[in-house]
């Protein structure tokens, strides 16, 4: 199997590349910049997907930072336009890749409150939900009828990098604490399980459509906080009040305060073997990563 990865230098992309190579797959990486051994991916030219069996699209502007009008436009356009460009490139190859794994996010569901949601649940409201909906709709078109497309709705990614690079140092200094009232649900997944789900979805012909990339057990923010504090042997008694988060972060604070209780029903029903099935296992692997 020859797999093309767009966003191969990112946190998930780099782990996916390593996992694919370990499993005996051949990997072709794409980059916006000229890199030795990489194929170029630019909105200015049709991407070269020749010779590939599958394409994984992980590209997208980071959601971190103040959500000004310009920032929100970048978040939306980077996802939708890149995905449309991928679909155009795939349409140019009648005998090209027949599998597309396209990133999305559990922001698709909006604030779910106490209600658990699965892949069959409708899109929620708010900027992230509408962005994810448009992102997924960009995978539609005539070429989609000839392909197997998986829309991977990724949760909060744990592990030794990514957002945990900012969270772990605070907790190690004893500066961690619950966000808001701490009762909001979090749906997390270790980065290695994201990579594992992608390779599993590529290998399993029955998997298509939306797939929730979260571990089987959502947790409340207070439980996530306690688990992380235990793992680093520090107290976590400094809460971040909701009003302070809204005042300092604006609309971005919804990412931290919204309740998102997501179940990976497709993965569970089809037997994906989670390496880190709960938040305790994820956090242990994040604090003390194995080589």
From the structure above, extract its key features.
16% strand, alpha/beta, 7-stranded parallel sheet, 10 helices, Rossmann fold, two-stranded parallel ribbon, 291 residues
Written account of the structure:
The protein has a domain at about 1-160 and about 190-215 and about 260-275: Rossmann fold (3-Layer(aba) Sandwich), CATH 3.40.50.720. Helix 1 (about 10-20) crosses helix 5 (about 190-205), helix 2 (about 70-90) packs parallel to helix 3 and helix 6 packs parallel to helix 10. Helix content is about 35%, strand content about 15%. The radius of gyration is 19 Å and the shape is globular. It has about 290 residues and is an alpha/beta fold. Strand 5 (about 100-105), helix 3 and strand 6 (about 150-155) form a beta-alpha-beta unit.
Q: Please give the number of β-strands.
A: 11
Residue runs with pLDDT of under 50 for 5 or more positions:
none
What is the CATH topology descriptor of the domain at 2-160 and 188-216 and 261-275?
Rossmann fold
**Residue share in helix:** 25-40%
User: What is the second-level CATH architecture of the domain at 2-160 and 188-216 and 261-275?
Assistant: 3-Layer(aba) Sandwich
Average of pLDDT:
95
Strand order of the largest sheet: 3-2-1-4-5-6-10
CATH class annotation of the domain at 2-160 and 188-216 and 261-275: Alpha Beta
* Radius of gyration, whole Å: 19 Å
Q: Tell me the major beta sheet.
A: 7 strands, parallel
How does the helix and strand content classify structurally? Answer: alpha/beta
Helical segment tally? 10
- So what's the overall shape? globular
Approximate strand percentage: 15-25%
Annotated CATH homologous superfamily of the domain at 2-160 and 188-216 and 261-275 = NAD(P)-binding Rossmann-like Domain
Q: Kindly report how far apart the N and C termini lie.
A: 26 Å
Strand and helix order: EHEEEHEHEEHEEHEEHHHHH
């Amino acid at each position: 199997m020859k797999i093309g990865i767009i966003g191969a230098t990112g946190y998930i992309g780099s782990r996916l590349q390593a996992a694919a190579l370990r499993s005996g797959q051949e990997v072709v990486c794409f980059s916006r910049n000229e890199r030795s051994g990489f194929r170029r991916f630019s909105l200015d030219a049709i991407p070269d997907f020749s010779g590939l069996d599958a394409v994984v699209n992980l590209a997208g502007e980071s959601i971190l930072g103040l959500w000004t009008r310009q920032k929100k436009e970048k978040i939306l356009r980077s996802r939708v336009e890149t995905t449309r460009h991928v679909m155009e490139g795939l349409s140019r190859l009648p005998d090209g890749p027949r599998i597309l794994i396209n990133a999305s996010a559990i922001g698709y569901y909006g604030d779910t409150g106490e209600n658990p949601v699965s892949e069959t649940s409708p899109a929620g409201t708010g900027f992230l939900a509408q962005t994810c909906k448009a992102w997924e709709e960009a995978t539609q078109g005539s070429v989609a009828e000839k392909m197997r497309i998986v829309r991977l709705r990724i949760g909060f990614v744990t592990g030794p990098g990514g957002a945990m690079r900012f969270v772990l140092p605070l907790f190690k200094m004893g500066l961690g604490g619950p966000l808001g009232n701490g009762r909001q649900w979090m749906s997390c997944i270790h980065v290695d399980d994201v990579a594992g789900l992608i390779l599993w979805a590529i290998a399993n012909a029955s998997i298509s459509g939306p797939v929730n990339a979260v571990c089987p057990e959502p947790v409340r923010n207070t439980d996530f906080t306690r688990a992380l504090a235990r793992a680093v042997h520090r107290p976590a008694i400094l809460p971040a009040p909701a009003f302070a988060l809204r005042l300092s972060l604006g609309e971005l604070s919804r990412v931290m305060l919204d309740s998102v209780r997501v179940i990976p029903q497709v993965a569970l029903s089809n037997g994906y073997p989670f390496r880190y099935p709960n938040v305790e296992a994820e956090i242990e692997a994040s604090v003390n990563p194995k080589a």
